Vitamin B12-dependent ribonucleotide reductase (Pedobacter xixiisoli), 850 residues
Amino acid sequence: MEKLTAQQSVTYTQEEAYAAALQYFKGDDLAARVWVNKYALKDSSGVLYELDPNDMHKRISSEIARIEQKYPNPLTETEIFELIKDFKYIIPQGSPMTGIGNPFQIASLSNCFVIGNSGDSDSYGGIMKIDQEQVQLMKRRGGVGHDLSHIRPKGSAVKNSALTSTGIVPFMERFSNSTREVAQDGRRGALMLSVSIKHPDAEDFIDAKLEQGKVTGANVSVRINDEFMKSVEEGVPFIQQYPVKGNNPVFSKETDANSLWKKIVHNAWRSAEPGILFWDTIIRESLPDCYADLGYETVSTNPCGEIPLCPYDSCRLLAINLYSYVENPFTAKASFNWELFRKHAILAQRMMDDIIDLELEKIDTILEKIAQDPEEEEIKRTEQSLWLNIRKKAEEGRRTGVGITAEGDMLAALGLRYGTKEGSAFSIEVHKKLALAAYRSSVDMAKERGAFAIYDADREKANPFMLRLKEADAQLYYDMTEYGRRNIALLTIAPTGTTSLMSQTTSGVEPVFMPVYKRRRKVNPNDKEARVDFVDEVGDSWEEYIVFHHKFKDWMTINGHDTNYNYSQEELNALIEQSPYYKATSNDVDYLEKVRMQGEIQKWVDHSISVTINMPNDVSEELVGKLYMAAWKAGCKGVTVYRDGSRSGVLIAIDDKKKEEVQTEEVASFPTIRPQVLEADIVRFQNNKEKWIAFIGLVDERPYEIFTGLADDEDGISIPRWLNRGAIIKNKEADGATRYDFQFKNQRGYKTTIEGLSHKFNPEYWNYAKLISSTLRHGMPIEKVVELIGSLQLDEAINTWKNGVARALKRYIPDGTEVGKAKCSNCNSTNLHYQEGCLTCSDCGSSKCG
């Protein structure tokens, strides 16, 4: 395990680090807070050991340079630092940035993992093994993907007490819940669940996330093959079967391909899921799948879809900042420095290979930790086997994930409009040059360091990606056949979220989201000089201020526009029209041209591309379907569509005159008389160190009533074991008036009431529960009920109870619902929404669950 260096023995307060980072990022509050909260080196007590990103980059440079010393012609620490400092050229992403040289976390440097069992594994044992492996990886900071096509379909015969299988959907919920339970330094785990379109339960899989509150901890994607797409085109039936591979299925059925296709399109239009993976394209283009019989058969992808992987393989990510290779940006003399770009692409691939060695060290530390744990060997066996398998794949295949960021800013700086044929042509050339440089670097490293262990030129000679490399650079291909290459697969384009925040550029391959947007800052009531632009429903005052995208601001400065002037709306519109960002935002670009561009870039990316097609709210389902079909024909490996408003909003457009109300599903009228029997969800929580339980009574899947109590194992509301098997929840009426003393009835007919538990139960809790129930039954929106709970003046013990009840109710809040009073703990933004039961900041993406 790493030890603290002399430099790292100095500690800083949160305030000191924030002030230094704010200066480093030239006043960018959001970037400063993201760096301090997510990437500055800190121990478990929150003590900081880095003052600003320079310290972090020195930490990373030192470790990579240490690995370089193992090989011929090593890069120096200074050379590496010059490449990564200021987030200018090469940016290790996420886990590498956090974990390299970090002595406080026993965690992996890999961003992405895929897991899965070989052979038949649809037993409970196989499924539980995957569940445990998923959790073990997430606690080490990894995002995980796995495929569910191995699980037998609903209704299949099984040799246990159930007699028939429950199918895929219940296990989706299980894996999702496991994800939500894992803490990762303030963020939750990330999971991708996929299934083959050939699986008989594919339609249930596609519909699973539409049920509110279900499968909220996972992204879902459908593996669609060419046969299905052709069936849709030709309007002919499609055969689903189990197992999904092979010519001797134990079960098969004919399905209407067009109906299933329309279901996929409708759900994606409605909720941005499922994503689509064009599976035959992925397998056909995959170099690792040339070694499928040696354990490299691709089975699923990471949570964002940009890394298709075989079981137990992993990948680390690094981005090259394309904007930094534009000389004289936003001028008539703007040009792209191809020579410097090629040089740095070669070094980026080399640094990625070094990071694999650092990852192997991390895995050895994890294995040492497991060996030292005091638990029985039987308990530790799955975790130990998991990391041994991951180590084998990392060492044997040495997979890397070199990508890019700032594609949108690069094009704008060159005077090219994103989404035009000219802009797309330039981007395609950039990615072609990147592929050739990275593969040249991998071949040269094979000469010095050795090829990846199972390299075999004959296996790859017919691969379409390899044939394109051969045609573009014959010498590279022949050198590869002679010396091999260092890495089994090299390239990807990932979403770059916080990476682009700190590099102050557009994200990944995407265009600018908005060149100008609006944020709100709460006004201090004592500040008599402050400008008040907006007063909210509780009387708080807010100042609205314009925020310029960083490179748009650079364009303004270079072209003589005052960035401090208080522009009117008309002046801003005119300013944007003059800029290269005009008609080139996420919502402006031509959808079909973006798909065509993605398909052409994909030809030079051996893994995949994470990209979202943004569409306006009023776009038709028919157009979404056409877009998916075009993506398949263009050679894309996957595609995700986001229709504006189908999930929570992001930033406030500068010309919004009025915030539109969040659209929610229409709620059926509630009964005027309390139902005699209520279906209930059960949520457990702690209240002042005691175990408590909340029952949320549901009508039409919407909370109608809530009641709570202690959760010991003795009697009454305190969760006797029979209650876990289901309870009949009844009201008790006396003298014609509704009473709130619910009865529970066990299998022996024993009944108990709230009054019967008064010796254990603080009646004040019950009074508040009655108030909340009354509010729910009158149809008040859930978010308002949560707000009501938050406004109650409660003592400390009851306040803990209140938080538990609010957490239980939040899972029913519709995605996109705005939050009235809260602030983001990461960036202090008030632009918060509920997303899948979690508070999500629409400015920085930070998420706080429960």
About this structure: Residues 379 and 609 are 38 Å apart (CA to CA). The chain has 27 helices and 33 strands. The longest strand covers residues 690-699.
